[in-house]
Amino acid sequence: QVQLVESGGGLVQTGGSLRLSCSASGRTVSDINMGWFRQAPGKDREFVAAVRWSGTRISYADSVKGRFTISRDNVRNTLYLQMNSLKPEDTAVYYCAATGRTPPLGAIWLEQSQYDYWGQGTRVTVSS
């Protein structure tokens, strides 16, 4: 079992930055595959970023490439999402996800169905 707790959401102006944190317990973040997803009002939840358990592979949604950075702190057992140059369309509830299932060599999990554990979400609102 993995427990995930997100924090760091809030209200920010267009062009601002936020850093989301996802504290994990039950497994170490260096042993599990983790990702960030988001759900905007009235929309389906979508992929944002993910990191393979080994740290050797990272993937981002096209909409956040160059603006968001996913990272891990193995000592704090925490996953982060640094979000810069925020836009109103980034407004959403952001969820941290994890799975112990190993993807094929060189691959990374991008689909919600591939993740087994989810946090409660943290809300990000970007004002125009």
Key descriptive features of the protein:
mainly beta; four-stranded antiparallel β-sheet; globular; 128 residues; single chain; 0% helix
Number of strands: 11
Largest β-sheet summary: 7 strands, mixed
How do the SSEs run, as a string of H and E?
EEEEEEEEEEE
Computed over alpha carbons, the radius of gyration is 14 Å
Q: Helical content, roughly? A: under 10%
User: How confident overall, as mean pLDDT?
Assistant: 95
Low-confidence stretches: none
Distance from N terminus to C terminus (CA atoms, Å) equals 40 Å
* Overall spatial form: globular
Tally of alpha and pi helices: 0
Q: What percentage of amino acids are in beta strands?
A: over 45%
- What class, by secondary structure content? mainly beta
Structural overview:
By secondary structure, this protein is mainly beta. The protein has strands spanning 3-7, 10-13, 18-25, 33-39, 45-51, 58-60, 68-73, 78-83, 92-99, 117-118, 122-127. The strands form two sheets. Strands 2, 4, 5, 6, 9, 10 and 11 form a seven-stranded mixed β-sheet that branches. Strands 1-3-8-7 form a four-stranded antiparallel β-sheet, with no helix packed on it. It is globular and about 40 Å long.
Summarize the structure.
The chain is mainly beta.
Fold topology:
Elements: E1 3-7, E2 10-13, E3 18-25, E4 33-39, E5 45-51, E6 58-60, E7 68-73, E8 78-83, E9 92-99, E10 117-118, E11 122-127
Parallel strand pairs: 2-11
Antiparallel strand pairs: 1-3, 3-8, 4-5, 4-9, 5-6, 7-8, 9-10, 9-11
